[in-house]
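ok new one. same drill as before - structure tokens go in, u give me an amino acid for every spot. 364 of them this time. try not to just spam alanines like last time pls lmao
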């Protein structure tokens, strides 16, 4: 999403004019301006009919014990593969525990994000830009479809694989992020071995078919400052993720909501867990067996939330289509999606054009 280049804050409680909107830098700058008691009108998302309030779920998000995926006990592994299949098929979300990524590394990377967002604006502005393929990009949430609605979020997006990119400031953040990116990539690749088996394939099927050795991995840090009118604003509206799987952590300030059985509800992650969701390209590859589920981020008036999402997708030149084995043979299910190169999908998606619906074929 394309950020702008500067911010006028003389009277933050007035609606921004088009020229002021085009000069906007960050929500953090807006929040820190003196006298802010209400949000400018172009941040108000309350009238959107698709953003209904969250309710309590009838069931809880599944929990997957990662350590069982590497268990030498075939019965334990068989059970966790079945649990993984159910989580991907019925929820599209699960909490991952015993994943082997240290609590200290998770804390360090969240602390590094906080320090980055607290850098002087001129240092962060080095990474400002509209080019979605810029290796390191700092900006703020803009609805590119409406072009006048602003989300209550600042972000840092970095492409960390197959080439590792990262800011040099704050000191030590790059090294922590590199280790975190490596460890999360290992976790996702191990999970995808289990997913391959749950679809009836050999462990390495998805890794080979999606060319994960050159797979695109993104480090996306989000800052959601305290909001004086959280009931009107939205951190990130309802969306699905591109790619195969996304791992998410946060600084213990809730805000993630997912859609399940047509209703929205809050996700409260277990301590030191990852929240994992299936992406658009796992839905395509599985020919619709696994669904890419809508989720969103809400804001609050009491505390600043930081989250880090790490999606892993195919290599950019991989053409993703339903696995041939799932559209032939006993199942008899026809292909439910058109094929598309991952880079073409990303170009369309990151320009604000929904792509998964475009690729869905009508059911006969």
């Amino acid at each position: 999403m394309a950020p702008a280049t500067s911010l006028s804050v003389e009277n933050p409680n007035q609606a921004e004019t088009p020229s002021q909107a085009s000069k906007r830098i960050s929500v953090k700058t807006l929040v820190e301006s003196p006298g802010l008691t209400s949000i400018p009108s172009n941040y108000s998302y309350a009238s959107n009919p698709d953003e209904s309030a969250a309710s309590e779920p009838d069931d809880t998000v599944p929990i997957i014990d990662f350590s069982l995926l590497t268990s030498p006990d075939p019965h334990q592994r068989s059970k966790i593969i079945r649990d993984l299949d159910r989580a991907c098929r019925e929820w599209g979300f699960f909490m991952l525990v015993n994943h082997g990524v240290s609590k200290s590394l998770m804390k360090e990377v969240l602390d590094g994000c906080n320090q980055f967002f607290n850098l002087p604006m001129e240092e962060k502005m080095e990474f400002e830009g509209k080019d979605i393929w810029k290796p390191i990009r700092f900006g703020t949430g803009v609805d590119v479809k409406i072009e006048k609605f602003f989300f209550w979020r600042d972000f840092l997006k970095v492409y960390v694989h197959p080439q590792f990119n990262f800011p040099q400031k704050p000191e030590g953040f790059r090294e922590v992020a590199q280790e975190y990116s490596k460890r999360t990539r290992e976790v996702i690749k191990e999970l995808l071995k289990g997913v391959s088996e749950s679809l009836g394939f050999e462990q390495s099927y998805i890794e080979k078919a999606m060319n994960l050795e050159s797979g695109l991995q993104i480090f996306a840090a989000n800052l959601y400052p305290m909001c004086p009118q959280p009931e009107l604003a939205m951190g990130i509206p309802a969306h699905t993720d591109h790619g195969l799987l996304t791992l998410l952590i946060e600084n213990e300030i809730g805000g993630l909501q997912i859609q399940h059985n047509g209703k929205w509800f809050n996700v409260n992650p277990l301590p030191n867990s990852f929240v994992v969701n299936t992406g658009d390209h796992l839905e395509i590859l599985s020919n619709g067996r696994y669904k890419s589920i809508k989720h969103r981020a809400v804001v609050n008036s009491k505390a600043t939330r930081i989250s880090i999402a790490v999606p892993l997708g195919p290599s950019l030149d991989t053409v993703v289509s339903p696995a041939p084995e799932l559209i032939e043979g006993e199942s008899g299910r026809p292909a439910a999606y058109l094929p598309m190169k991952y880079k073409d999908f990303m170009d369309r998606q990151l320009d604000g054009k929904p792509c998964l619906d475009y690729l869905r074929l009508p059911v006969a």
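Residues 189 and 207 are 7 Å apart (CA to CA). and btw Residues 173-198 form the longest helix (26 residues).
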